[in-house]
Amino acid sequence: MTVTPTLTAPGIVLRPLIPTDAAALFIALSDPDVQLYRRAPAHTALFETQAYIADTLAKSRAAWAITIDGGEALGRLALRVPQPDTGEFGIVIRAAAQGRGLGLKAIQLAEDFAFGDVGVRVLRANIDIENAASRGLFARAGFQIAAHLTADRTTDLGVRDSVLMEKLR
To answer: How does strand 86-93 pair with strand 122-128?
Structure first.
């Protein structure tokens, strides 16, 4: 079993994601606007968020609750490592917490961990082609578009293209 470290910077604490974060994350995951470009529809019941957290914890090298002070989860950031030298980020932040720089700080903290402690050489994010906010977030973090993936995902919007953004160590 791997351990997710607590990572901190001014104005943010990434702490290990835990099952009891479900109620706080339900706020983001039940919001149709937040879920618009994600592969799963907005959650309608807390048990869906509980299952989502369990799945995230099972499939991730590290999974963090995005917080201001180590308390309530305003979002989550997960790092998956599908190949020894490749990491993949997935992030979700509730609408009321967006626009404060939390996403950028979270990615920057986690990329230091991924490149340093985990030892990946490349970090990736697979983002819906029309998700300008996420594309902008990862671009601000220094990620560049590496590929356009046709008909890569199915969402509530139908079959969608995505972009693969990546950052090299």
So the answer is: parallel
